[in-house]
Amino acid sequence: MVRYIIKRILYIIPTLFIVAFLIFFLVHLIPGDPALVILGEDASPENVKVVRETLGLDKPLYTQFVLWIGKVGMGDFGRSIFTKRPVIDDILERFPVTLVLTTLAMIFSLLIALPPGIYAAVHHNTRKDYTFMFCTILGVSIPGFWLGLMALLFFSVKLGWFPTIGFVPMWEDFFVGFRYMVLPSMTLGLFMAAVVARMIRSSMLEVLRLEYVTHARAKGLGEWKVIGKHALKNAFGPTLTTIGIQYGMLLGGAVITETVFSLPGLGKYLVLSIYSRDYPVVQGCILFFALTYMVINLVVDILYVYFDPRIVYE
Amino acid sequence: MMTWQRLVAHKTGMLGLVIILLNVSVAFTAPWVATHDPLGMDILNRDAPPSMDHIFGTDDYGRDIFSRVVYGTRISLYISLLSVLVAMVCGIGIGAFSGYYRGWADTVIMRFMDALMSFPAILLAIGIMAVRGGHINNVVIALGVVYTPRFARIVRGSFLSLKEKEFVEAAVAGGNGDLVIIFRHILPNCMAPIIVQATVSLAYAILAEAALSFLGLGAPPPAPSWGNILSDARNFMLDAPWMTIFPGIAITFSVLGFNLLGDALRDVLDPRLK
Amino acid sequence: MRSGMRILVILAVVCMIGFGQGDGLVGAASKRGGEIKVGTNADVSAVDPHVSTSVPNAVVLNHIFEPLVCYGDKLDFVPVLAERWEISSDYKTYTFYLRKNRLFHNGREMVAEDVKYSIERVMDPKTGCPFRSHFGKIESIEVVDKYTVRFHMKESNAGLLSILAYEHPRIAVIPKEEVEKQGGVFNHPVGTGPYAFVEWKPDRYVLVERFEKYQPLPGPMNGMGGARIPYVDKIKFIPIGEKEVATMALLNKEIDFLLQVPFKSVEKFRKEYSKKGIVIEEIPGLAFYQIFFGFKKPITKDVNFRKACAYAIDRDMVAKAATRGYCAVNSSFVAVKNQYHTPYHDTWYKKDIPKAKALLEASGYNGEEVILYTSKKYPMMYDQALAVQSELATLGVKIKLEVVDLPVLIKKFTSGDYQMLSFGLGAKPNPNLAYIVLKMNGFLAENPRMRELMGQASKTLDFETRKKAFEECHRLVYENVPAIGFYNYNYFNAYHSYLKGFKILPTNMPRFWGVWLEK
After folding, report:
1. Smallest Cβ distance to C410: which of A43, A44, A268?
2. In the 8-state DSSP scheme, what is residue C482?
3. Do B221 and C390 make contact, defined as CB atoms within 8 angstroms?
4. Does residue C19 carry a pLDDT above 70?
5. Is A142 in Cβ contact with B119 (below 8 Å)?
6. A174 — contact with chain B (CB < 8 Å)?
7. The pLDDT of residue A229
């Protein structure tokens, strides 16, 4: 068991290295020069040269890569070209926002998805099931930013239930902060809810057919106990994996949601820094996102063992 | 075939198919269905609400939104079909090679695929678009790259389990070359999950294009992609909400079609899940 | 009138005058208090004034710092930290006499040493000030005595005052010990302005609060100078990227002031939102948008082609497309509201398709595609490009629109590597700084007379000489069409009616001193 965990952790390192390699060269292929963005219309060749030298952009590409990767290993992601602050500081300041957003979205989606998903599985092939399926499919078909803007228009402007802008961290003031996060996390979570609901339904269906369920029923166990203790626990495994994979979608969706709702998260920061060609920030952010995704999946894989111990021996 | 019959009998799946066919036919007949030139500006008539002349109203440059949405069908279909095709070809190739030959090549390749998949899809697409610049074919490439690992994984997984089966042994014994075995014997048996993944990817591609356009990284304006129309309209949500409703419905509708069909295919092709 | 009454009347008049000027104590006290929340469209990129470059930074930093000299409402030079100055007749020596008792936010008095330190920090390559080269013309800075500082220029240069005024707050006067305490990067800036920096939460807001020991300067509010009376306790600058969301936030009273109102919303603000107590202010601006021609590429390097385009494009139509008419149509590099603008600067081509066609033929245009670069980041840049494309289509010129990212556009612009490019310039009170961009597309290289004129204008502060020089500059622009300018657009600010005393500037730099809340 412990060996399995260690193996999984070690697995992350080479993957991360490849990711870093890909990121660096991807980012440096982006046309446009950050020196010019900084200088704007006041860019004269002398100014540009000075700025480029200050930023270290005049060194050959592979040298820049080696320097960067070395520092990253030490936890130094370099300095932002624009703010001159350490990238890692900027990332760590914004990352909790994205984390809270995606986690809340995940919680909302589970709350929304699990009951109907289980219900539909149990009432399989009935009208209720079909309606449910249709609703979930609709849920995954709506573009996120459209939903976000509509939600703002309706719930914030027309009804005045939620603020349109602003952010207070939930660790500073739980209830006020929560109020700022409700609309964004529900918008983000809706898509995920639909996916999770479908997943839980199909795994439940699969499990409900299996012999040991019939056996449990034959034993005379109450239906709820059958569903809750036996079926659900086993069905949850694949659902958990899906959740892990879907977390990647949440991280991606966070980019859009943060832009629409003006949340000071990592996703919005990444997009803004792509526009301004702030290379160190872009690289650092993407690397951080990748790392987060890998860690989440690691956690999921470990939790999976609880639901399906057989996996350790594969 | 049993599967075809069951597919036709699947009500929601058929609804999905109808939606898709509707989309395709609008895409083909766009010049006749559209009422105006989708790029034709009419500054004096900007931001007009829906009327007899402009069924969906006009946008900020006076362009007819209905015609733009109609022509947008072409762009979304082009992007989604082509990018999934690219992803399928690359993914199947990589997955088949990896699953069949195993060994260290398999490990390296799969590690690479894992690395690609560890980027949230949108971020990878954003990155590629930023590098290559705004062009409709770059969106195809970006999305193609994003989906390739998913296909590769599925194909490799299927190959791993199928390779041990008897019919493969028989084919080998019959003296068939590797390529023949891969493409003629094993691959046809993996088609089910590939097809399902394809419809899922088609649906996501349309949403992804919309998201990229929202961030200004999609097909460059003035192309009337649905994402662009929606993105242009977002500055008018308070003043002219109709501008967002129609492209939004178009996107949702099309994605719905692919999802319904995909679900039906999943139900039909993998009876265990029914 | 009886003498008693007379005395009372005189007293009353004196009181009114006294209170009217600089707001007497009673009036001031009742106005004090409150917090203003300002919605901007982008976050600051840094709070160190010498590193900041962008407009969002200036919006905030204007409240924290004071310059030596600034531009007044009428674009005259207003002394701020400097009480007066003397310029040697050869424009090589500038002597600034500083005001006394200007306190930094840390309590220390600002002296000549600080000016020397600040400007030298700007000139130091290690600081990374993007506008370092503007100050490269300074030979040395001398501290004459506690309140006198002298600039020695390398050669005759009449532009120092305008650089000092234009670049504010980016070349603010700062105290050395604070910078050193913070290890060289000024993360908690300290200045002499009416508001002191409190905190910057990136992507969330910048907060400043009143500096209690601030002494407003004499005279009425004038540009960035004059009496800057901090009535409100705090100002919070909140960046909101989505324009519709910003409007929603204003309607919801989540912000009190919106810095930029999109043109398309102006009507709605005036008709509908005004009923909800929202005020919208308009002012003609000093910034421009133009289409530039590249002198290094085929067809656009031919003056006949450029003139043909000028004859073919209806500027009013382009202006309407891009600004909905909220602008002043102007093709000169001297803005309409600029003090150097004379009726001569209105000279331009009237739409004349036959003439245009003749010139087009003379240029040898063969129906090939001409590429016009633009970006979607600034709507006006994009809208005018679309309009130009459609106008030139009627002439038979095929324009291909290449929409690129802003950094790529800037790169193209500065290198001159394009045929046509849609671009915008910020306010340039000194027209020299506007004409200098014509170096980048290759026009100045071809036109020695233009360079001569600009040199002339830069060597003097005499209004008449400069005025004449700029008029001739415009004549050269008119004859050679290196660029087609379209308009100086208007700025719109919107805010709730309980916010009083606000006066908009033609540079759209908001001033929240002299502003109070009546809730």
Report:
1. A43
2. S
3. no
4. no
5. no
6. no
7. 65
Decide if A84 and C185 are in contact by the 8 Å CB cutoff. yes
What is the pTM (predicted TM-score) of this model? 0.82
Nearest CA in chain A to C205: A166
- So where are chain B's domains? 2-33+56-273
Alpha-helical runs (H) found in A29-158: 34-39, 45-55, 61-73, 87-122, 127-139, 144-151
Closest CA to C483 of C415, C426, C413: C413
Q: Which residues of B touch A145 (CB under 8 A)?
A: 210-211, 214, 230, 234
- Crossing angle of helices C448-458 and C463-480, in 10° steps, is 160
Which CATH architecture does the domain made up of B2-33+56-273 adopt? Orthogonal Bundle (1.10)
User: What kind and span of H or E run contains C500?
Assistant: strand C499-500
3-state SS of B10-52 is CHHHHHHHHHHHHHHHHHHCHHHHCCCCCCCCCHHHCCCCCCC
Q: Cβ of C254 and A264 within 8 Å?
A: no
Distance from CA of C302 to the nearest CA of B (A): 29
ipTM: 0.76
Task: Tell which residue, C286, C296, C368, has the closest CA to residue C335.
Answer: C286
Q: What is the pLDDT along chain B (274 residues), one digit of tens a residue?
A: 566 777 777 777 888 899 999 999 998 998 888 888 877 777 777 888 888 888 888 888 888 899 999 999 999 899 999 999 999 999 988 888 887 777 888 888 888 887 787 777 777 887 777 777 778 888 898 889 888 998 888 888 888 777 777 777 777 777 777 777 777 777 777 787 888 889 888 988 988 888 888 887 888 777 888 888 888 888 887 788 888 888 888 899 899 899 888 878 877 776 554 3
Q: Would you say the C-alpha torsion B65, B66, B69, B74 has a positive or negative sign?
A: negative
Q: Taking residues C349-377, report their average pLDDT.
A: 89
Contact check, Cβ <8 Å, C268/B239: yes
> Which residue on chain A is closest to B272 by alpha carbon?
A206
**SS3 assignment, position C281:** strand
Find out whether A188 and A101 touch, Cβ atoms under 8 Å: yes
CA distance C394 to C37: 48
Residue C424 DSSP code:
E
Helix, strand, or coil here: B129?
helix
